[in-house]
Design a protein that fits this description.
Blueprint lengths: L1 H10 L12 H30 L3 H6 L1 H22 L8 H22 L3 H22 L1
Helix pairs in contact: 1-2, 2-4, 4-5, 5-6
C-alpha cells in the first residue's frame, strides 16, 4: 500500500508540491514503504534460517515458490530504494517503470494465489489465475 501511495505522488503531474522541492507525503510514503520492506526481508530471512536449521535447505533452494518470493522481496526493495532516491522524473525512467510493472504483476499474482484459499473467493479467482498461467509465455515474449 505504501508503494501505491508513493506512485500516486510521483505520477501526479498537477501536484503543486513539486514546485517547492521535496514532498513531505512522498517522503513519508517512502519511509513507510522501506520499513514494510525491511519487515518482509526479515521474515524471508527467518524462513530461510528455519529451513536450514531443520535440514531442509535443499527443499527451500529447489522450490520455485521460494525463489519467486525472494525475487519479489528483492525487487520490492529495489523499487522502494529507487523511489526514495529518485525524484518526480522517475515516472519517465524506462528501467524504473519496467521494474515497477513487473513488481505489480508479481504482487497481484501472489495476492490472487493467496485469495484462492478462501472458498467463496477462490472459486471466483480460479479461472482468472488459470488464464494468467496460460498467457505467461506470451507475456515473456
Amino acid at each position: 500500500v505504501a508503494n501505491f501511495m508513493a506512485i500516486i505522488f510521483i505520477t501526479d503531474e498537477n501536484a503543486e508540491f513539486w514546485q517547492f522541492g521535496e514532498s513531505l507525503p512522498l517522503l513519508l510514503a517512502n519511509i513507510i514503504s522501506l520499513s514494510v520492506w525491511l519487515v518482509a526481508m526479515f521474515l524471508e530471512v527467518t524462513q530461510i534460517v528455519g529451513y536450514v536449521s531443520v535440514g531442509l535447505a535443499r527443499r527451500y533452494m529447489t522450490g520455485p515458490r521460494h525463489w519467486f518470493d525472494v525475487v519479489v522481496v528483492l525487487l520490492t526493495g529495489a523499487v522502494s530504494l529507487a523511489l526514495f532516491s529518485l525524484n518526480q522524473d522517475s515516472s519517465q525512467d524506462l528501467v524504473f517503470c519496467t521494474a515497477l510493472g513487473v513488481l505489480m504483476i508479481c504482487k497481484w499474482g501472489r495476492f490472487l494465489v493467496y485469495l484462492r484459499q478462501i472458498k467463496s473467493i477462490g472459486i471466483q479467482i480460479l479461472p482468472i489465475t488459470h488464464a494468467m498461467y496460460d498467457i505467461a509465455p506470451f507475456l515473456i515474449v
